[in-house]
């Protein structure tokens, strides 16, 4: 070997050691959080904050607030209660007993059933009216638990599951639904009685179908009369509703589950009310109107013998409140709510009847904001006249977000609202006479509350921009005692609050946004930007709560993360929310681009030429719309998108766009498959084949359109996964994929610093060995295996190549790679510095 080559080899070795030591020194000197923030940590059982309390309920007598607390893995859980008077905590049901009485819903293997239990918060247990017994739902088998003796007795044992159990108001009987029919049994456990006897799979008595649960937030479809003698229930006939095939292609012989799912313009379930006596199986049917396409989203009892029901038209801009004589079936419309040019907002319109007087609370958008109105009626003869408006209880430029509780003895109503800041949620009270508006919560952030039946106490959960979630039990007008505190994700993982910003739409409307910049942004140079979008009427992304930790991961890798709530998103007045009436996409994108222009003007360090966008569900749809209706985004990720709104369910879509026969042009304009040829930027499309909400059909149609248009894109399919693509492995895989996509497409490329073999952009000074990336030198890249062995054998014949590999694996600069689509794709360790 020539002396000159020996010198070069020594210089090369010295350079490697120098790079290694410099990196280690920089890593040691830089401040770091207690724990490394990784995608794996986010989606590990319990996440960053730990598993929060579940199945929170108040005992009927208002003395106990109960909840299930499980460990992160869900292997051990106990039913606790907090004494409302003292604040003391005690175990109500031990872990050994709870394991069989209320198994962890997250361990249910069936993807769709697990999502149903968690998404719709199906109760694991129910208090008896005497507050001395509980009934548990253990995978469809009911168990009656005696708190005094601590013993459980199996209440049902049929092979088919019994769901939605309820005690009669006097506690003498328990009702439940099995195979779409109503059953009742004495609480003593004696003979079971079947009250309805339909046998068809398309006929529901007291049961809930998919679309009512998803789009009208229906959680139960039957209710006991106050005197415990009758049950009013909703009968649903899905015979004419089309089916969507959910195909499981994993087994050798694929299986098909046909889901009843009304798409835009399809027949909806035909519905009617029935009343049945608890002691016999004779049903009396109630006919409210002749509109076969109407919905009955809410109903219940005014008092013994009188039923109330809300009937909503298919366009969802007119709703009638009926009072019905349960015996004769005679009915009267006592109130009609109309919203011309808008829709009935079922996220917040929940009538609340007052027990002590003939009256009810009615939320309405009628003055331009969602506010509370008090109505009265003759309780002795409810059908005698229309309900009378007594007064408007709340007013101002804010939205009432829900009625949380009522203390009738004190004449007080408790509600959540965003008064003062649409990005916050607080708890308020107001007197029934319209005076005494008070704010009960005060720290900056987002509060939710659950009140006892008497309105004397409440549970409140709070989180703020730099405050991890915490739960307290409070006395109205008194003190709060802590119940649960999440692990401090801010301190432990170094999460930061974003900058909260304001922009203006082209009509002057204020738009709220948030921006998270990289923690160590370079003094010079441009920062790539990622827009995280939802943009639809079901979600608000700019709230004063902890930042999404995935945003922080991306920020630490050198990206800025931006989100803005365009017109059409919730939390604002009627004009703001209904700006998207009869169209999806155009207004939303206009506001997003307008806000982006103002953001780039305010933050010149952001790179408008390296901007990406990503979203899930409606956010996935908006990502596709933005990439096919503008050229502003270099890369995008669309997860589980609706690609043609005709494919989505009738109730949600027609509420906003309208009926297909009347708004054909609007539907055509929002069809992203028709604009596939206009795709700009690098697209990653991801979807689960078991998605029973936004069907995989949407992505199939988009794929076909993109291929036909000659557009290249990346695709990831998750077998049998539902809309949430849940599960630790699937979530880790997806979020690494998203991260890699933006690393590949948005990081600045320098031609002198690109690996000639795998094409990976080098973010550190070019290594002199033919511009081979560090990843290649560590032999993680399959393309480099042969060249690496050849180089070592020729240059260092006396050194074992494994020695080099071991040395390089110790470097904090070593990057993990995944081999996908023939290229090296970056998936850098979260503990490594950004180079």
Characterization of the model:
This protein has 835 residues and is an alpha+beta fold. The radius of gyration is 30 Å and the shape is globular. It has an eight-stranded mixed beta sheet with strand order 36-37-39-38-40-41-42-43, with helices on both faces. Strands 13, 14, 15, 18 and 19 form a five-stranded antiparallel beta sheet that branches. Helix content is 20%, strand content 31%. The chain has 17 helices and 45 strands.
How do the strands line up in the largest sheet? 36-37-39-38-40-41-42-43
Which shape, going by the Cα principal axes?
Answer: globular
Oligomeric form:
single chain
Task: Please outline the major beta sheet.
Answer: 8 strands, mixed
Separate helix tally: 17
* Fraction of residues in H or I helices: 10-25%
Protein traits:
835 residues; disordered C terminus; globular; 17 helices; single chain; alpha+beta; 45 strands; 8-stranded mixed sheet; 5-stranded antiparallel sheet
SSE blueprint and pairings:
Layout: H1 3-29, H2 39-42, E1 54-58, E2 64-70, E3 77-83, E4 89-93, H3 95-101, H4 111-119, E5 125-127, E6 133-138, E7 141-146, E8 151-154, E9 163-167, E10 173-178, E11 181-186, E12 193-194, E13 203-205, H5 210-215, E14 222-224, E15 230-237, E16 243-248, E17 255-260, E18 270-277, E19 283-286, E20 295-303, E21 306-312, E22 318-325, E23 331-338, E24 352-354, E25 359-364, E26 371-376, E27 388-392, E28 400-407, E29 412-417, E30 426-431, E31 438-439, E32 446-451, E33 457-464, E34 467-475, E35 480-485, H6 489-493, E36 499-504, E37 510-516, E38 527-532, H7 549-556, E39 560-564, H8 574-577, H9 586-602, E40 606-616, H10 618-629, E41 635-639, H11 650-656, H12 664-669, E42 682-688, H13 697-708, E43 714-718, H14 728-746, H15 774-777, H16 785-795, H17 801-809, E44 817-820, E45 823-826
Parallel strand pairs: 38-39, 38-40, 40-41, 41-42, 42-43
Antiparallel strand pairs: 1-2, 2-3, 3-4, 5-6, 6-7, 7-8, 9-10, 10-11, 11-12, 13-15, 14-15, 15-18, 16-17, 18-19, 20-21, 21-22, 22-23, 24-25, 25-26, 26-27, 28-29, 29-30, 30-31, 32-33, 33-34, 34-35, 36-37, 37-39, 44-45
């Amino acid at each position: 070997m020539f002396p000159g080559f020996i010198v070069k080899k020594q210089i090369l070795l010295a350079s490697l050691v120098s790079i290694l030591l410099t990196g280690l020194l920089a890593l040691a000197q830089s401040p770091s959080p207690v724990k490394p923030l990784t995608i794996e940590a986010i989606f590990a059982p319990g996440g960053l904050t730990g598993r929060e309390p579940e199945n929170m309920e108040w005992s009927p007598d208002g003395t106990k607030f109960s909840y299930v607390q499980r460990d992160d893995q869900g292997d051990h859980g106990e039913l606790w209660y907090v004494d409302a008077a003292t604040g003391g905590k005690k175990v109500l049901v031990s872990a050994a007993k709870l394991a069989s009485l209320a198994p962890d819903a997250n361990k249910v293997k069936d993807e769709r059933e697990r999502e149903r239990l968690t998404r719709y918060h199906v109760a694991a247990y129910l208090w008896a009216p005497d507050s001395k017994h509980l009934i548990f739902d253990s995978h469809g088998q009911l168990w009656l638990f005696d708190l005094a003796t601590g013993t459980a007795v199996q209440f049902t044992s049929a092979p088919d599951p019994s769901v939605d159990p309820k005690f009669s108001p006097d506690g003498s009987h328990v009702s439940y639904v099995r195979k779409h029919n109503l059953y009742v049994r004495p609480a003593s456990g004696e003979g079971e009685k079947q009250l309805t006897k339909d046998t068809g799979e398309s006929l529901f008595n007291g049961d809930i179908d998919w679309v009512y649960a998803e789009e009208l937030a229906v959680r139960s479809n039957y209710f006991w009369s106050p005197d415990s003698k009758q049950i009013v229930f909703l009968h649903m006939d899905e015979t004419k509703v089309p089916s969507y095939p959910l195909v499981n292609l994993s087994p050798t012989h694929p299986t098909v589950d046909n889901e009843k799912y009304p798409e835009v313009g399809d027949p909806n379930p035909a519905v009617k009310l029935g009343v049945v006596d608890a002691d016999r199986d004779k049903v009396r049917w109630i006919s409210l109107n002749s509109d076969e396409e109407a919905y009955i989203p809410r109903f219940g009892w005014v008092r013994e013998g009188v039923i109330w029901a809300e009937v909503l038209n298919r366009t969802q801009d007119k709703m009638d409140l009926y009072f019905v004589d349960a015996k004769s079936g005679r009915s009267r419309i006592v109130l009609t709510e109309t919203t011309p040019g808008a829709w009935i907002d079922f996220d917040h319109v929940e009538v609340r009847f007052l027990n002590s007087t003939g009256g009810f609370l009615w939320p309405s958008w009628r003055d331009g904001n969602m506010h509370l109105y008090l109505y009265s009626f003759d309780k002795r003869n409810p059908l005698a006249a229309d309900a009378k408006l007594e007064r408007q209880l709340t007013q101002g430029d804010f939205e009432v977000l829900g009625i949380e509780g009522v203390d009738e003895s004190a004449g007080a109503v408790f509600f959540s609202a965003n008064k003062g800041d649409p990005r916050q949620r607080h708890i308020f009270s107001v007197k029934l006479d319209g005076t005494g508006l008070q704010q009960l919560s005060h720290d900056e952030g987002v509060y939710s509350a659950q009140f006892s039946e008497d309105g004397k106490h409440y549970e409140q959960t709070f989180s703020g921009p730099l405050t991890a979630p915490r739960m307290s039990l409070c006395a109205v007008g008194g003190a709060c005692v802590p119940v649960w505190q999440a692990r401090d994700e801010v301190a432990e993982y170094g999460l930061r609050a974003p900058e909260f910003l304001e922009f203006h739409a082209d009509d002057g409307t204020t738009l709220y946004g948030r921006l998270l910049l990289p923690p160590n942004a370079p003094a010079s140079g441009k920062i790539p930007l990622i827009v995280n979008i939802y943009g639809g009427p079901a979600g608000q992304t700019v709230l004063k709560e902890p930042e999404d930790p995935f945003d922080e991961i991306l920020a630490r890798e050198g990206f800025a993360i931006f989100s803005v709530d365009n017109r059409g998103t919730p939390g604002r007045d009627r004009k703001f929310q209904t700006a998207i009436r009869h169209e999806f996409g155009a207004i939303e994108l206009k506001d997003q681009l307008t806000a982006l222009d103002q953001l780039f003007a305010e933050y010149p360090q952001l790179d408008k030429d390296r901007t990406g966008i990503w979203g899930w569900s409606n956010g996935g749809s908006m990502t596709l719309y933005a990439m096919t209706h503008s050229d502003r985004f270099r890369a995008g990720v669309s997860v589980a998108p609706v690609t043609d709104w005709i494919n989505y369910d009738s109730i949600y879509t027609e509420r906003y766009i309208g009926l297909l026969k009347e708004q054909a042009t609007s539907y055509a304009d929002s069809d992203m498959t028709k604009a596939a040829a206009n795709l700009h930027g690098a697209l990653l499309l991801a979807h689960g084949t078991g998605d029973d909400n936004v069907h995989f059909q949407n992505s199939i149609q988009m794929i076909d359109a993109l291929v036909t248009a000659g557009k290249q894109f990346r695709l990831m399919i998750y077998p049998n996964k539902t809309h949430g693509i849940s599960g630790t492995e699937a979530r880790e895989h997806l979020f690494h994929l998203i991260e890699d996509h933006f690393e590949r497409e948005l990081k600045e490329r320098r031609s002198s610093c690109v690996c000639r073999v795998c094409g990976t952009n080098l973010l550190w000074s070019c290594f002199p060995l033919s511009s081979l990336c560090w990843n290649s030198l560590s032999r993680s890249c399959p393309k480099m295996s042969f060249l690496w062995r050849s180089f070592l054998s020729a240059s260092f014949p006396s050194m074992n190549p494994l020695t080099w590999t071991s040395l390089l694996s110790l470097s904090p600069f070593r990057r993990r790679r995944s081999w996908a689509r023939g290229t090296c794709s970056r998936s850098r360790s979260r503990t490594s510095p950004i180079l």
